[in-house]
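Quick one: structure tokens for this chain, please?
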Amino acid sequence: GAEGLRGLAACWWVAVDHGAGLAAGLDRLEGALRAERDQRADLRAQLAGARATAVMLACLPAFGLLLGVALGADPLHVLLHTGAGLGCLLAGGLLEGLGVWWVARIVRGAETAS
């Protein structure tokens, strides 16, 4: 957005003050903006796998609970009313949060590096 407008302003300034051709500057600006847009699209495509992993990690506990109910168990009762269940719930929640944080950190790092 703003980079393109700054580039256009610079091309206009050079063309007006120094008599350079505006069309040549705008062609170079267009090429640079297209290359930047293509690079962002490529990065988004490369990070799609990491984002899908984050979504899967976030949905996995709910899937496990539904699977337990489908098999005839009462997973919520076990998780909330037994010592082992509470321990597993705490450990699983901690690992879940750590996994989602780690994947989000990878994605943010890749986005800021580009």
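Residues 92 and 98 are 10 Å apart (CA to CA).
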